[in-house]
Amino acid sequence: EKKELTVLFSDIRDFTTISEKLTPEELVALLNEYLTAMTNIVFRYDGLLDKYMGDAIMAVYGAPLYQPDHAKRACLTALAMMDELRKLQDKWREENRPALDIGIGISTGDMVVGNMGSEMRFDYTVMGDMVNLGSRLEGVNKEYGTNIIISEFTYKAVSDIVICRELDWVQVKGKQKPVKIYELLGEKKDENRWGDLLVAFHTGLSLYREGRWDEAIACFQKVLTAWPEDGPSRVYIERCEKLKTEPFVQPWNGVFTMRAK
Asked: Where are the alpha helices (DSSP H) in 46-151?
C-alpha cells in the first residue's frame, strides 16, 4: 500500500579504508558498538529498523503503525545519532581506535510499504522514488562536508521545530525535477548558536543564485573566518571560482547537477 512516510539512511564515511587498517575481530567489535548505539536511538524515537546493509542503516518512520509526526521523529533521531557519535568518537580516540564519521539522509513522501520478496522469504520494507532520494541525500553529504541532509519535503514538515540551512537546489541523478536540500543543524532551542552562520551563508547563496560570483565568494569567505571548518562555504567558493571561468547553461538558474548516485 502507498503511505506518506519518512525514511532515514545512515552510512559510515570511508568505511573501506578504515576496515583495511583493522583485523576482522577489531572491525566487528567497532561496527557492533556503533550499530548498537545508533539502533537504540532509532528505537528511542519508535522508528522501524528496516535493515542493515553492511555499515549502513535504513530506518522507516510512520509504518507499520501510523505516526503523524514521522518526519519529526526521523530528524530527532538523526540529531541524537550525531550527539552519540561525538561521544563515541572521543572514546575511540582515547582507545587509539578509528573515530568513525557518518552521513545521514532523510526523505519524506509517498512510499509503497509492505512485505516484499520471494514466496520463500520476504521482508517488510518500503520502496519508491522518495526512498531512493533519501539514499541519494545520504551520499550527497560527501559533496558538502556535512553530516545530515534532508529533502525539501521533510523540511516542510519540520521547519517549525528544527534549525536548517538551505544548502542547494539540486538535480539528482535519475530525477527530472530539481530538489531543494537542507542541512539539519539542531533543534529550535539551539537557534542562537546558528543564527549568524545562517544569515551570512544565505546571503552568499542568494548572490550565487544571481550569478554575482565575486560578491558571493566574499560572503562565503566571511563565513569561513568565523567557522573555518564549514564545508558548504568551501564548496561554494570553489564552485564560484569555476563558474567565473567556465561557460555554463544560460540562463543561469542556480541548479546544481549531482554526479554521485
From this structure: 70-94, 129-144
∠ CA(238), CA(100), CA(92), 5° rounding?
135
DSSP H or E segment with residue 5? strand 2-12
What is the third-level CATH fold of 2-158?
Answer: Alpha-Beta Plaits (3.30.70)
Distance, in Å, from the CA atom of 231 to the CA atom of 183, rounded to the nearest integer, reads 11
Spatial contact of 10 and 149, defined as CB atoms under 8 Å apart: no
Other CB atoms closer than 10 Å to residue 66's CB: what's the count?
10
Distance between CA atoms of residues 72 and 82, nearest Å: 16
- Return the H-helix or E-strand segment holding 27: helix 24-44
The model carries a pTM of 0.93
Run of H or E including 224: helix 213-226
Which tens digits make up the pLDDT trace of 156-198?
Answer: 999 999 999 999 998 876 667 889 999 999 999 988 889 889 9
- How many angstroms from the chain centroid is the CA of residue 146? 7
In the block, which residue shows the cell 514466496? 119
Q: Domain segments of the chain: what residues? A: 2-158, 187-256
SS3 state of residue 67: coil
